[in-house]
Structure formats: structure tokens, C-alpha cells
Amino acid sequence: xxxxxxxxxxxxxxxxxxxxxxxxxxxxxxxxxxxxxxxxxxxxxxxxxxxxxxxxxxxxxxxxxxxxxxxxxxxxxxxxxxxxxxxxxxxxxxxxxxxxxxxxxxxxxxxxxxxxxxxxxxxxxxxxxxxxxxxxxxxxxxxxxxxxxxxxxxxxxxxxxxxxxxxxxxxxxxxxxxxxxxxxxxxxxxxxxxxx
Length: 196
What we know:
There is one protein chain. Strand 1 (32-36), helix 3 and strand 2 form a beta-alpha-beta unit. 29% of the residues lie in helices and 30% in strands. The chain has helices at 2-6, 19-24, 42-49, 61-73, 107-120, 136-139, 153-159, and strands at residues 32-36, 53-58, 79-82, 95-101, 121-132, 164-176, 182-193. It has seven helices and seven strands; from the N terminus they run H-H-E-H-E-H-E-E-H-E-H-H-E-E. By secondary structure, it is of the alpha/beta class. The mean pLDDT is 94. It has a seven-stranded mixed β-sheet with strand order 3-2-1-4-5-7-6.
């Protein structure tokens, strides 16, 4: 499905970074960044422009090829790995930043992945997440078709046990990020840090 979605010439979620990521990245120490479900690369390329050493992971080889082209066009370098996040293992104590922007998995692999996120951060490392909440189904402006694939603040606080939360909110905002995320949306935003 994702290869087909990304096969168009256009960047279906745009080429600019996620608004929440852009707003909070100044709070993050520069270093190694891991971008989960990175798709066509807009967030990975932005982070590379901010001085991070970036690895972008996605199940779509087509999306990641576009990510590499975007990086070249913007004069930066990113690494990419094609992997199914339901089976992907994050290296422990390796990352200064892990980013998950609209990465919607079923609950069981999501909980495992979030446990890996906690283990994968170095002391002082930061996790940034934005995802749709079940209330997004009422808006219909993007995101998965079922509530099971969405997240709540309470779910995430439990799944990310071991991190200290600097922001953990559910809110409504205008999400204008390419053709497939356009309009009012119901989101959860997390900025959490691993204790030093």
C-alpha cells in the first residue's frame, strides 16, 4: 500500500517538517536521530538540516528513495533502512533523538516498539511523537481508518514508562501537511526525555 501511495511524483505529505517537530526541536541535544515511519523524508531531511546525523526507517522503499532525493536536493545526507516497524529492533542506548510522526501501528507491535524507544535513547535523549487520537475519526482529514490504530495520551504515558514527560497533550489543531493531511485534526503530542 505505501509503495503505491508514494509512487506519485508529488510528496503526498509535503516536503516541510511536521509542525510539532519544528516547534520543539530546539529543546533537543544534537547527535544521532532515528525517524520511525519516515515515508518520503520530510522530517529526516529537516533534522539533517538542523545538524543531526539521521537514520530514516520505513517499510516503503519507494518512499525512502524519495527521501534520499529530497536530502540531495536540500544539500544534506540521511541514511535509510527499509524495515517493517512491527519487527524492527531499535539499538539500545544509541539515539539522542527518536521521532515518531503519524506512525500508526496495531497496539501489540506499537507497545513493543515504544518499549524499544525507551531502551534505545541515550541518557538525556528525547522522544518526539505526534499521532492521531480516536477523535480523529470524526474529522476524517487524514490518519488510519480505525481507532485501534490511533493513540491516546494515557496509552502513551503507560507505554513510554521510564521517560520524563515535558509535554503530553491531546489537542485539536489544523494539520496542513501535504495532500493527505489537510484540515482540522485531533492529535496527541509527546515530548519526553530519558533521565540522565
